[in-house]
Amino acid sequence: MADREARKANVVTALNKARSMELHAIHQYMNQHYNLDNMDYGELAANMKLIAIDEMRHCEMFAERIKELGGEPTTELAGKVVKGQDVKAIYVSDVESEDDTIFVYNDLRKVCVDNGDILTAKLFETIIEEEQAHMNYFDNISGHIETLGDTFLSKIAGTPSSTGGTTKGFVINNAAN
Ligand code: FE
Ligand code: FE
């Protein structure tokens, strides 16, 4: 069944492409989390940390499926981590990055369907929904910064950055509230 093996390999390649994008997102968002914390925008820092944890969950979900298919999960980051962004640049670039992720994952989901793997296609659908939640959140914050600027930011300055005992990420945390 060489054909079947080739189909599996195509799905593993799609999963690893997504995994390397997640690895990049984790490091980018962690970097932003530390910077936001440093700028004392506690609430923004806390949510950024939780979103980085979501991306870690995605990374593991992709890896588990890769292992099930007999592949090897990549450890490569899809791109370079941009450092030292100011608060406005952070949200503009994160909206773009989530939008790009959703677009690419739609294509990768199609690769799974075309190669007869509906289970992996469903995994992509689940994760696309969570990326949409991230994008909506980043877009909200970006809009507030754009229209209210310092008025918005002065409300956030000094708020707590603790995420408490919550380690399950942004999407699960918000669903529980
Ligand atoms: Fe993700
Ligand atoms: Fe995301």
CATH topology: Ferritin
Number of strands: 0
Order of SSEs, N→C?
A: HHHHHH
**Structurally, how many domains make up the residues?**
1
Instruction: Quickly name the level 1 CATH class.
Output: Mainly Alpha
How does the helix and strand content classify structurally? mainly alpha
Low-pLDDT runs: none
Largest sheet: none
How much helix, percentage-wise, in residues? over 70%
Query: Beta-strand level of the residues, as a percent range?
Result: under 5%
Summarize model confidence as the mean pLDDT: 95
Short description:
The chain has 177 residues and is mainly alpha-helical.
Provide an overview of this structure:
With 177 residues, the protein is mostly helical. It has one domain: Ferritin, CATH 1.20.1260. 77% of the residues lie in helices and 0% in strands. It has 6 helices and no strands. The chain has helices spanning 2-38, 42-68, 87-114, 118-148, 150-156, 170-176. The radius of gyration is 18 Å and the shape is elongated. The N and C termini lie far apart (49 Å). The model has no long low-confidence stretch (mean pLDDT 95). The structure holds fe (iii) ion (2 copies). One fe (iii) ion binds at residues 22, 25, 55, 58, 127, 131.
